[in-house]
Backbone:
């Protein structure tokens, strides 16, 4: 992935005054701030959904199906059952955000741990683990996830299991690579010479230097997981009706696209906002960490 | 000579990978909770029938024997019997393979055609309007779910503008090009976000590099530099990125074929998941994995021919 | 400048790359342009006035009349084969088809049919032996429609143009049964010789014959030159399989097809407003219902079933699942068919009553259950969501399970189900078929897979089948309907019409309540468009 992108900062630079030097540090953080703000907004909105809307995401209204946005008291309109779309997007956010954080969080921890062990100990442990990682990389990730969910049965939990089983490999590979490099550095050699336990060396000395790379990748991975969760919902392999998961909403909306475009379009915009938020966060982090180098 | 050794090494490295693929695919079928016979027989389930089914699938034998049987069948080209289509899983899959291959090639072409100029020009006119627009677009594009993008394209181009068909594959080569344009565009746009970023940064690196400066000092025109170094480097980058993100490209066909109703292997996967046709699910997963491995090898070889340094690694 | 050794190779590589890039670019541009330009001609036949193009939502499962179970395929085979008798355009009476006349004798236990002279589309003559063979073949098929003719002892062909049926007892619906698609006449010699392969290019004696079949893409029919009736106005029929609802509507809007089946309910009004198009709601014999498998204990309890009846708002289903284009259901028999009991009213939505019934039952605190639905059935899926939402108010938690059509039906039928979505359409104009399926536990479907049974109702079913006096018969069916209504082994939700849309350039397309449009194809004309 390229590390020189930071459009958020660019946008800000465009409007800057001559006092660029003073603003220099701020512009590097602008991406981070914008990303955090976007994500924060979405998270807060989802959690505070009952405060933001009176409608429930699951209440049917036979009198007002397929109402367009800004009509009859529905900000974003209603779907084929008369359910308020704004409410469904807010509550649905909980599910998609759960996938983003839950799936990413677990694979981050597990994958990093495996990569640390593999890179640190080397030898046959490393060889075996890396072969397994290579093997998983051979499979088109999405196909594997679908196959696993297919076998276990469609549900949100099985979706998590499928993602956990397949996503750790990227973290393992990144961590292992950086661990191998760090292993040769003086501070690690010194720690080993001092006789510190392996776990202490790994956690106290190597991990802090590796974690920044991992976190940046995690942001990219989070975007991927949101899209993945939505894709599985879209295919009917994740969240089940009448759950307001965004992907499932987009899928349902296809049937009404000729008469009511907003059913499919609006949840997609929500997904894009979350994705952009994570991307900006990742880019901002990358800049911040590079600036500190 | 080094080249042949390189090819040989790469092919040899394939063997454990292929072996691993068979193991994973084998265990996939065993992930099914409960009795596979119940799934297969469904309405016609009887205790006796279940025993028969389990025997036919070899499920009453020890695990390692089942695996050997599985691999034996694979070598014979036998992927099992499709439950829904009542024909061999292999024939079902081979029937549906051409649209997917067409789609992947088409999407790769469109992605290349879109990305190379955009990435290179972005780098050449760095921080200009074009560059900034491109970077915002790729940022947003990266976060767009492909199935949503496909639906939006259908909404605009098929439903409102009537330019392309909504669905299907078509009966002739030109009809294929027509029907597959929007699907290819959907995959390509997603893929391009990565391609453009990579091209931009690698082009920037090339432009800032020493040998370009040397060439300019020598008096070689900017256009010649562009052609000789930048473009060549661009193509190498594209090939490398393809290799890394190939799995993504192929996975993209699953969603896109479903949205656009294309009768390829991707939609076959989804169809057989919903009909619980496990042999076909297993077979498609295997085919996808082999496809990825094969195209990976191909891109490696192309990369090696374009950039001799790879061979010497 | 010095010439280095690598520059030659480098130049060649550069040239190759440039050529490659340019070729790729050119290919894409030319391809897209050509495709867009040629697109108009891709379905050239569509604008021809001698061809009627219909877009169906479901692929052809088989063209074997004995094995047909999918409606769309059934309606297709009715164009290819003939039967002894056939239903008329309004589905209220029977017309002669292959049989020109018939005599009933021996107290209703002997039927003698005289056949016209007819040929199959391949030129071979159609004889009474073919008729006897076809009917017996269909009757013998396990899991088929044989039970309809269980009173038939023998079917013989004393000569080439006479078919004689001997019955064990009087059987009122016999003629209606013989009008059923399953008892179409197929050529004995060819079927026996070719086996399963025959059905990929079948030969029949109907007005149209199959010229090409790709089960999940397209079926092409041409006029049968050997057909005995008046030649149809059109020469060809093309049936395209387009499962995607939106595609079908768009194809009609762009005039690439002449008619489509099943436009989405929410688009019916929109299509009507589109210039040159019209939407049609043909009265049907379709009944949408929810099966309640009594192997699952709660459904054995009548109080639970009554709670479900009052706890489901049929008007909401009509509004949300059918955009208002349906009628709330009462009797299990199709709307206003022969002997339909009009005194039965749809159960009204009454949450208080529902709760009261549930309180009386063994499950006053509700229970968990699952509902099987068919994938991609928009109206059905919407119905499921409404039901789930409404039953939640009774503490009945419904888990919706979606399966592809045949899988869903298999899961609903085995006796391991709970709630299952299903619908019924008549194949004959007589109430015996639906009644046997819905009420008789041994009637072939275990009372719509509920495994329910009522001694009085079952005995009435058998009596009514043999009763030749229409008044007495009518009273029996009215009583059966009352019993089923009061017991509600399955929940009757609604009656929905057949939805079609066609271009106004089509004249004469009409679907009868059994879903058949074959008669209308004989007079149908297509203007240029």
Residues:
């Amino acid at each position: 992935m390229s590390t020189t992108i930071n459009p958020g900062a660019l946008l800000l630079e465009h409007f800057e005054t001559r006092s660029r030097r003073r603003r220099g540090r701020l512009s590097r953080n602008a991406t981070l701030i914008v990303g955090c703000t976007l994500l924060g907004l979405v998270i807060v909105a989802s959690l505070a959904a009952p405060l933001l809307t009176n409608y429930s995401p699951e209440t049917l209204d036979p009198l007002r199906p397929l109402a367009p946005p800004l009509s009859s008291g529905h900000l974003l309109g209603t779907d084929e059952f008369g359910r308020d779309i704004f409410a469904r997007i807010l509550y649905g956010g909980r599910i998609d955000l759960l996938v983003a954080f839950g799936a990413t969080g677990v694979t981050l921890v597990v994958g990093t741990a495996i990569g640390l062990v593999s890179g640190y100990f080397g030898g046959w442990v490393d060889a075996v683990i890396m072969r397994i990682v290579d093997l998983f990389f051979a499979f088109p990730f999405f196909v594997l996830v679908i196959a696993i969910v297919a076998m276990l049965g469609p549900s949100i939990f099985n979706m998590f299991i499928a993602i956990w089983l397949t996503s750790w490999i990227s973290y393992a590979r990144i961590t292992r690579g950086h661990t191998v490099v760090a292993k040769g550095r003086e501070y690690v050699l010194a720690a080993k010479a001092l006789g510190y336990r392996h776990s202490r060396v790994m956690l106290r000395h190597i991990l802090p230097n590796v974690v920044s790379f991992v976190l940046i990748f995690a942001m990219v991975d989070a975007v991927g997981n949101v899209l993945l969760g939505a894709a599985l919902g879209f295919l009917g392999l994740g969240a089940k009706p009448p759950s307001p998961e965004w992907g499932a909403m987009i899928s349902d909306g296809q049937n009404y696209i000729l008469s009511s475009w907003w059913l499919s379009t609006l949840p997609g915009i929500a997904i894009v906002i979350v994705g952009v938020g994570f991307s900006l966060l990742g880019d901002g982090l990358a800049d911040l960490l590079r600036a500190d180098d | 000579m080094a080249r042949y050794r390189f090819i040989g090494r790469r092919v040899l490295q394939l063997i454990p990978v292929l072996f691993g693929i068979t193991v994973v695919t084998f265990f996939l079928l065993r992930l099914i909770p409960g009795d596979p016979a119940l799934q297969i027989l469904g309405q016609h389930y009887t205790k006796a029938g279940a025993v028969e089914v389990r025997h036919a699938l070899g499920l009453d034998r020890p695990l390692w024997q089942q695996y050997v049987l599985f691999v034996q069948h694979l070598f014979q080209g036998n992927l099992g019997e499709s439950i829904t289509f009542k024909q061999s899983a292999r024939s079902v899959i081979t029937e549906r393979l051409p649209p997917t291959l067409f789609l992947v090639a088409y999407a790769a072409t469109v992605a290349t055609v879109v990305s190379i100029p955009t990435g290179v020009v972005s780098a050449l006119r760095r921080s200009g309007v074009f560059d900034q627009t491109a970077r915002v677009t790729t940022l947003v594009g990266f976060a767009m779910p492909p199935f949503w993008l496909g639906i939006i394209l259908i909404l605009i181009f098929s439903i409102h503008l009537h330019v392309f068909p909504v669905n299907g594959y078509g009966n002739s080569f030109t009809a294929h090009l027509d029907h597959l344009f929007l699907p290819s565009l959907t995959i390509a746009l997603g893929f391009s976000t990565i391609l453009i970023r990579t091209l931009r940064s690698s082009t920037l690196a090339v432009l800032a590099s020493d040998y370009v400066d040397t060439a300019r000092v020598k008096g070689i025109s900017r256009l010649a530099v562009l052609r000789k170094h930048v473009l060549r480097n661009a193509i190498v980058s594209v090939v490398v990125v393809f290799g890394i993100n190939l799995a993504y490209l192929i996975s993209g066909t699953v969603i896109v074929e479903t949205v656009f109703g294309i009768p390829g292997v991707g939609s076959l996967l989804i169809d057989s998941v919903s009909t619980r046709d496990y042999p076909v699910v297993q077979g498609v997963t295997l085919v996808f994995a082999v496809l990825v491995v094969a195209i990976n090898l191909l891109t490696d070889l192309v990369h090696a021919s374009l950039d001799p340094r790879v061979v010497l690694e | 400048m010095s010439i280095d050794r690598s520059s030659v190779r480098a130049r060649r590589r550069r040239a190759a790359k440039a050529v490659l890039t340019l070729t790729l670019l050119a290919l894409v541009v030319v391809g897209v342009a050509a495709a867009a330009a040629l697109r108009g001609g891709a379905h050239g036949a569509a604008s021809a006035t001698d061809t009627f193009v219909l877009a169906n939502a479901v692929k052809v499962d088989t063209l074997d009349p004995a094995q047909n179970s999918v409606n769309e395929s059934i309606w297709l085979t009715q164009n290819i084969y003939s039967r002894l008798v056939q239903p008329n355009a309004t589905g209220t009476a029977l017309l002669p088809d292959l049989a020109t006349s018939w005599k009933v004798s021996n107290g209703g236990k002997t039927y003698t049919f005289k056949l016209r002279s007819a040929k199959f589309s391949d030129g071979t003559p159609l004889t009474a032996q073919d008729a006897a063979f076809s009917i017996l073949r269909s009757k013998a098929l396990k899991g088929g429609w044989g039970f309809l003719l269980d009173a038939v002892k023998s079917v013989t062909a004393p000569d080439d143009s006479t078919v004689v049926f001997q019955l064990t007892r009087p059987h009122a619906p016999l003629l209606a049964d013989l009008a059923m698609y399953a008892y179409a006449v197929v050529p004995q010699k060819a079927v026996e010789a070719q086996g399963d392969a025959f059905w990929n290019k079948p030969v029949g004696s109907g007005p149209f014959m199959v010229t090409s079949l790709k089960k999940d893409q397209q079926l092409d029919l041409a006029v049968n030159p050997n057909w005995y009736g008046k030649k149809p106005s059109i020469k060809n029929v093309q049936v395209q399989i387009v499962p995607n609802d939106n595609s079908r509507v768009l194809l009609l809007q762009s005039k690439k097809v002449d008619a489509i089946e099943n436009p989405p309910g929410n688009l019916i009004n929109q299509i009507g407003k589109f210039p040159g198009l019209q939407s049609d709601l043909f009265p049907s014999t379709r009944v949408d219902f929810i099966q309640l498998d009594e192997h699952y204990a709660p459904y054995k309890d009548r109080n639970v079933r009554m709670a479900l009846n009052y706890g489901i708002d049929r008007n909401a289903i009509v509004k949300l699942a059918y955009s208002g284009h349906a009628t709330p259901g009462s009797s299990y028999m199709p709307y206003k068919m022969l002997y339909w009991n009009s005194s039965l009213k749809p159960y009204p939505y009454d949450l208080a009553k529902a709760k009261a019934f549930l309180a009386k039952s063994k499950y006053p605190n509700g229970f968990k259950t699952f509902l099987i639905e068919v994938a991609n059935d928009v109206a059905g899926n919407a119905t499921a969501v409404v039901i789930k939402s409404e039953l939640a108010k009774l503490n009945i938690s419904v888990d919706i399970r979606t399966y592809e059509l045949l899988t869903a039906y298999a899961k609903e039928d085995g006796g391991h189900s709970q709630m299952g979505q299903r619908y019924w359409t008549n194949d004959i104009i007589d109430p015996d078929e639906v009644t046997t399926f819905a009420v008789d536990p041994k009637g072939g479907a275990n009372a719509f897979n509920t495994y329910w049974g009522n001694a009085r109702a079952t005995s009435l079913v058998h009596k009514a089948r043999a009763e030749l006096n229409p008044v007495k018969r009518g009273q029996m069916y009215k009583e059966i309907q009352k019993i089923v209504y009061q017991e509600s082994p399955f929940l009757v939700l609604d009656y929905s019409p057949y939805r079609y849309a066609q271009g106004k350039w089509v004249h004469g397309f009409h679907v009868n309540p059994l879903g058949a449009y074959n008669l209308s194809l004989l007079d149908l004309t297509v203007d240029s468009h």
